[in-house]
Input
Amino acid sequence: MEVPRIYLDHNATTPVRGDVVEIMAEVLREVFGNPSSVHAEGEAARRLIDDARQSASGLLGVDSREILFTGGATEANNTALWGVLSQRENAPGHIVTSRVEHPSVEAPLVALSRAGWRVTRVPVNPEGRVDAEEMLSAIEPGTALVSLIWANNETGTLQPVAEVAAGVRDRGILMHTDATQALGKVNVSLEGVPVDLLSASAHKFGGPKGVGMLVHRGEVAFDPILRGGPQEKGRRGGTENVAGITGLGVACTLAVKELDVRVKEYERLRDRLWEGIRSTIPKVRRNGSSNHVLPNTLNVEFENTAGEVLVQTLDLEGVSVSAGAACASGSIDPSPTLVAMGRTPEQARGSVRMSVGHGIDDGAIDRVLEILPRLVHRVRGAETR
Ligand SMILES: Cc1ncc(COP(=O)(O)O)c(C=O)c1O
Output
């Protein structure tokens, strides 16, 4: 009998939830109209997009008019940074960010610095957290924007976004957060949190790939990255991904409904995994924060172990985990996030990320705990030979 695979890589992407698949299939089959068309078919498609916007606004605690659908979080981050800043008066100016941002924030910042913007990257402590005060004290008279990731994709460490946003408020400085890893895993309501721009992606919480959103509140002006159409009130040209946006909406509704249960369940499974690893495998260390952390994420450093070999070995045994961020896999450069936390390149290389989610149960965790000590022992043996 074939043993079912155990997917412990929910931070890379999540399986699409059954409800999402069903509604998307129905939309693809039945609702083919162009949302810009004035006839009944167009109207039906437009209504689906409006409904999805309502669901997303419910999850995020913002006005639905403040939500722009995008082709994922990479596009949302590029729009929030390049789209907003490249057309600012008094440009180029100054940006404050952290040393543990996702490449889809870091790369537009590099492009902006080529255009003359100055970027201050605030260091993090050994748990991977910035100090809110330190971040605020990096603000200068020319600072236009502060960008701080809500939860890190590799370690799950949560940043003090609300605290930094409160300090930025009323200073004419925009606050952006990449909340891609946080949605559906922790509460990300912006009610009472003065964040101006927030990026997210459906595939990280049970939705489809290639669709995401940018929340832009108040009067944030930006140049569209995609020009050439009236869609999304002229803020993003191109016929909308109606099925994808509908899927995102359903994923948001599920996240609202299930959040409390998910948090408890993910945390319980993640802690069971860590306790098992810690008590059976010598020379292991948990990277990141133990109290400011996503409930589903465990980043473990196995001393004297090639993380990428352990990932492959586990894969052959039917277990999916990742070494470093998914976007960086294929390369064995040490993770910049772990290096920013003070790990040596060698230590960073021994780190493996395990992220639980929908479909993982006690049996799956126990199976991993059953095979992992032997595999780590084998990989370590090969390394020291
Ligand atoms: C924190 C973070 N930001 C942005 C992204 C990019 O998201 P997308 O795949 O939707 O472009 C990811 C995906 O890995 C992520 O983890």
